[in-house]
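User: My collaborator sent over this chain with a note saying "see what the structure looks like." That's all I know about it. Can you take a look?
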Amino acid sequence: MAHANTPVSITSADLSEDRFSRFGLIDWWDQEKLRSAKILVVGAGALGNEILKNFALLGIGHVLVIDLDTIELSNLSRSVLFRPGDIGQQKAVVAAERTRDLYPDCCVKGISGNVMHDIGLGVFGWADVILGALDNREARLWINRAAWKMNRPWIDGAIEGINGVARVFLPGKPPCYECTLGEVDWKILDRRMSCKLLTREEMEGGKTPTTPTTSSIIAAIQVQEALKLLHGLPVLAGKGFVFEGMNHTSYVVEYTPHDECLSHEVYDHINLWSKPSNQTTIAELHAYAQKELAASDVALDFSRDVIQALKCPKCGLLRDVYACAGTVTVDQGKCPVDGEAMEVMAIHGFRGKEAYGNRTVADVGLPPYDVFVARSHGKEMQILMDADRVNVLAELDEL
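Assistant: Without extra context I'll predict from the sequence alone. Here is the result:
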């Protein structure tokens, strides 16, 4: 062993090593696949931090991270990328900056928003692999359906206490996440939203007990599965790696496909629309679909439900809203005149005669870079608002 004052000799082999040379010693490793990969990470908490750290160390080239929360003091005990001075700042933005600090050549962007309301389906189609680092079933269900529609694999991670699970879902190959949901899961999902499509405030502040040790284990498995997907290797498709921290009795569970699952829809006829959402009316998209499908009676479906208006059953007050379902709270849904719970008027698409046809996609309340589905007599096509891509995915060095 060399003494502390002994000079360290540097060989020519040391000088020839690059940052990722040790990875190349793995016989199947292809660093170029990682350099060109596009990764979507949903959630920048304990799991998300570990996922992003691992991707930065591995040399992933393009990363988009989404989270709706700001950094709190309690995050500092579980999140390796956050510092005391970050408290109050947006998790996604800070996590993206720290990922870039770890690997400056990574094109990374953070979006502060709700994945169910603020993110268009095109974002899911951009990614090669999607990783979920979430703490609620509703968002997981949304990611699952979006990933299937846009034909992208996703890797879910969940932790509680010192236990956790990582599982892989491939589009077009059930089982999917929704197939795994049981009766208890659906009861929890039903409680999350009222029958009027308004968010219940008491369900928004749930906290899941976690530790940094467990999150590092589950995130490592998630990233390892992503590496295997990018290299075309076998993965835990339709299976879950379960980690039980008390006795370390880890095992793999296999899920069963559900024949009546509503998530099993893959978009395979996507047309690109060349105008941005804030310059395109709903009627304009409908007319385009009529032309492409050679039909007059076309149904243009939205990617998600929209609350058009709220109406008070007592005083008759009518208030336009035009916002995605789930963004309006129960308290916000009360009449300002008499405090009565207002009735929700929801819309799900456009059939050609509705008055809101002259509104732009943005004015209807739908997010940019989204997808519409047009149907008529057994024929179907999808329309991606592709002109929004340059703004939504800015900083990601699109290829």
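A starting point for your reply to your collaborator: The first helix runs from residue 12 to 16.
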